[in-house]
Amino acid sequence: MSLRATQRPIILGLRQNAAQFFLLVAVNALVGGMLGQERTVLPLLAESEFGQQAYTAALTYILAFGVAKAATNYFAGTWSDRHGRKPVLVAGWLIAVPVPLLLIWAPTWGWVVAANVLLGISQGLTWSTTVIMKIDLVGPARRGFAMGLNEAAGYVAVAVTALATGYLAEAYGLRPAPFLLGIAYAALGLGLSTLLVRETRGHARLEAANHVARADGRHDHLHQELSNRQVFTQTSFREPALSSASQAGLVNNLIDGLAWGLFPVLFAAAGLSVGRIGILAALYPVVWGFGQLFTGALSDRWGRKWLIATGMWVQALGLALIALADAFTWWAVAAVLLGAGTAMVYPTLLASIGDVAHPAWRARSVGIYRLWRDGGFAVGALLAGVVADAFGIRAAVWTVAALTAASGLVVAVRMYETHQRRTSAPSAPQGGANG
């Protein structure tokens, strides 16, 4: 029996698919919460309970997470095209279930690293799939807004959970209380994904069948049928917008790996309490998260390129302030700058990938972009750890600030504007794509 015969009529558009879209927003909030359970507590656990003194050794869990998530992102896109989106999403939640239990019971640091390998695989499958499914549902007109909502849900949940685990750790200790939230998130995410989420691959097929080429002919060489190798090459190196987005995504998560692994240690060394460290750990992703509610939609009006370039430069400024400051108030200002810059970049990069990649291979391109982007966690953990061990944490922050400013320059020079306003494009074949 055909897909159309077994499902409701397939229509593109945010309004037409609102129930499924906002269900996926909620699911991605739970995905973010699984990541947030670690943000405040694990850097402190590394030293206090597991004796990880060297920064490079302590950051092994972020390195393991980044490598696992980056590799899984690639396969998530391929598997989503081959087997459908929903099975990949459910598999990701199944893999997430043991993570908080391993963190609670871990007798050695190796257990923590193993838990983060599972967390990386889970995040690669679940977060990638919710991104792909939302792009499928909304069609071309509201892509930036859709990505803003998706990433906002995920990173507000990271922030709220980081804040909550900081207070739980201060009140009840570093284990097990903070990780009980993770158990609840995994159970709820698995239940919603299994019982209520519907497959969206048919929406991508509908868009592919009615795909409208750019008026300037820029994408004429990007045919509907590309091999996996061709998609990888175009996304990573050859296509100017896709490759610019990939390098910017890598540097962006390099910043996040630094913030996750070393900022709590820097703040603790300055004498801040666990509760105040939790506030700072939450402030960056909460501004990032809520900011995306606006920046994603703005990219649909203003375009993608200059939001991305400016966002990278704002993040570089925030990092410089982190390195210069030595007090809670200035670190809070820096965290706001970091969050604002990341909000300008994060959903806009995903939207630009959706603009350029043909619907027939878009899921694979999203997976490859996210491979590079989340590879930034691993690069950030390794680079920050090595530089911090050799020259101190502040030197590591300065190094990443310089790389971030350079990444913004690459976008400004190499990337073209990917967003084409579709006021003149035929609307009928899209089945309401402008809704």
From TrEMBL:
Q: Which CDD domains match?
A: MFS_MdtG_SLC18_like
PROSITE patterns this protein is in?
Answer: MFS (PS50850), SUGAR_TRANSPORT_1 (PS00216)
Q: Where in the cell is it found?
A: Cell membrane
Question: For the Major facilitator superfamily (MFS) profile domain, which residue ranges apply?
Answer: 21-419
This protein's membrane topology, according to the annotation, is:
Multi-pass membrane protein
Q: Give the residue spans that cross the bilayer.
A: 21-37, 57-76, 88-105, 111-132, 152-173, 179-197, 250-271, 277-294, 306-324, 330-350, 371-391, 397-416
The entry's cellular-component GO terms read:
plasma membrane
**A Gene Ontology molecular-function term?**
transmembrane transporter activity
Keywords of this entry = Cell membrane, Membrane, Transmembrane, Transmembrane helix, Transport
Q: Pfam families in the record, alphabetically?
A: MFS_1
Q: From the Swiss-Prot or TrEMBL record, give the protein name.
A: Predicted arabinose efflux permease, MFS family
